[in-house]
Amino acid sequence: MSTAVRHDWYQTDEKVVITVMIKKPIELNCEVTMEPDRLLIEADGDIRLEFHLCQSINAEKSTYKFGSAKVEVTLIKLISERWADLTKEKAEAKPKVVNIYKHNWDSLAKLLEKEHEDDRGLVNEGFKKIYQNASPDVRRAMNKSFLESNGTVLNTGWEEVGAKKTEMRPPDGTEFVSWKDAQ
User: Fold this and answer.
1) pLDDT 10s digit of each residue in the chain, 183 long?
2) Which residues, 6 or more positions from 109, have their beta carbon under 8 angstroms from its beta carbon?
3) How many helices (H) and strands (E) does the chain have?
4) How far apart are CA 25 and CA 65, in angstroms?
5) Nearest CA to 5 among 27, 28, 22, 29?
6) Phi and psi angles of residue 156, each rounded to the nearest 5 degrees, phi first
7) In what order do the strands lie in the sheet with 47-52?
8) Which stretches of 53-130 are assigned E, i.e. beta strand?
9) Which residues lie closer than 8 Å to 100 by C-beta, 6 or more apart?
């Protein structure tokens, strides 16, 4: 490259588009040469850009057009895949990232569901032990608070529960809807 010329590029799965900023490319006798592994852009005024492409292209189907201040080259890929970079030199300099962790999301979902069931089982076991070892007043308080609150409160203090009706307290961020209202 003799003169520094600004360029940019982007890609899709099927093509690579390179924009080279050259003012009045037609007046500068700009020439674009496309080969399977190389792109060459030359113009008067000591302008020469050569790209050794990262992957091969279909040179016959690739196109270019001149604008008033740019040359836009559309390269058609032979293989529909993302390029690491535009040129071989930059692509080889980049470290290759290999994903050694392939996730099986279905098995992960099953594992989480099993853990959730296990946790629920542990909580239920805890409540069973509390209920089994409790006095008749504690059992009465647990039953009354649980039933009156529609399963949202479990209280073991009979003095508090026996004196008044237990109010429903749904978890934070939720709202209680009666099954009659839901229909």
Assistant:
1) 446 789 999 999 999 999 999 999 988 899 999 999 999 999 987 889 999 999 999 999 999 999 999 999 999 999 988 898 898 888 777 766 666 666 777 887 888 888 877 777 777 888 888 888 889 999 999 999 999 988 888 888 999 989 999 988 888 888 878 777 766
2) none
3) 5, 7
4) 10
5) 22
6) -105, 0
7) 31-35, 38-43, 47-52
8) 57-66, 71-77
9) none
